Amino acid sequence: MEKLIITAAICGAEVTKEQNPAVPYTVEEIVREAKSAVDAGAAIVHLHVRFDDGTPTQSRERFQECEEAIYKACPDVILIPSTGGAVGMTPDERLQSTDTTPIPEMATLDCGTCNFGDEIFDNTMPTMRAFGKRMIERGIKPEYECFEMGHLDTILTMARKGQVPGAPMQFNFVLGVPGCTPATVANLCWLVNAIPAGSTWTVTGIGRHAFPMAAAAIAMGGNVRVGFEDNLNLAKGVPAKSNGELVAKVVRLAKELGREVATSDEARVILGLPARKK
């Protein structure tokens, strides 16, 4: 098997300090959490940004500030800025994260509308085509975020039509969001069996599903995302003190299951990215 790529989703747009005091809001806190994750073994940081009061934002300026600061602390890391933002943001607002300098190596591209707890996460076909066009024009490799099984067929059809970047494709299967596809090994296997040959994939288990899904992905030869965006606890009733603690648990699982963990440079090779210019 190839080495395991670990992604740390360090803050998201929804979780708060009231839920876990270590959730980062400020630039300094975001850098702290990114470094804790990278030092523990994460090759990728999936990045949302907040204002200092915790309000989620897709401000180009805030992304620029956070990315520059993270690169100073973690010069080799792969950053995947979110184009999902927060529920209710407009497509133009969400795309600001692709306007930073240098142009992001990767960015998320959400593959369809879905229930998101009590809200609706709106990703219409015109929105997805606009996001795909932006990434094609700027040479950004998407990470395709699939919350539902139908999302996978949608994005594969768009790729065949040239509306979004094609092979080699990287998928993130987000399982266990209330109202979306349940986090089961059977569902994960169905999704993995449906992706094109030569693709890479990651699984994100939400909440209590984080580590069971991580273990399944490690055994299946896939990759793993963990972090405060998806899960705040190291174990039931035990809040994680940092994103680094969550990543370190995945590293321990990988060691027990015989998978080596990829560095950021090794992850670039696996994902088909060029070497980072420093």
Description:
The chain contains nine helices and 14 strands. The chain is of the alpha/beta class and 278 residues long. It has one domain (6-271): Alpha-Beta Barrel (TIM Barrel), CATH 3.20.20. The protein has an eight-stranded parallel β-sheet with strand order 5-2-1-12-11-10-9-6, with helices on both faces. Strands 3-4 form a two-stranded antiparallel sheet. A two-stranded antiparallel sheet has the order 7-8. The longest helix has 15 residues, at 243-257. It is globular and about 45 Å long.
Taking the sheet with the most strands, its summary is: 8 strands, parallel
Specify the number of helices.
Answer: 9
Could you say which structural class the secondary elements and strand pairing correspond to?
A: alpha/beta
CATH superfamily: Aldolase class I
The total strand number stands at: 14
CATH-assigned fold name: TIM Barrel
User: Between the first and last Cα atoms, what is the distance in angstroms?
Assistant: 30 Å
Q: For this structure, what is the CATH class?
A: Alpha Beta
How many individual domains?
1
What is the structure about, briefly put?
This protein has 278 residues and is an alpha/beta fold. It has a single domain, classed as TIM Barrel. It has helices at 27-40, 60-73, 91-94, 125-138, 149-160, 185-193, 210-220, 243-257, 264-271; strands at residues 6-9, 44-47, 49-50, 56-57, 78-81, 106-110, 114-116, 119-121, 141-146, 170-175, 200-205, 223-226, 233-235, 238-239.
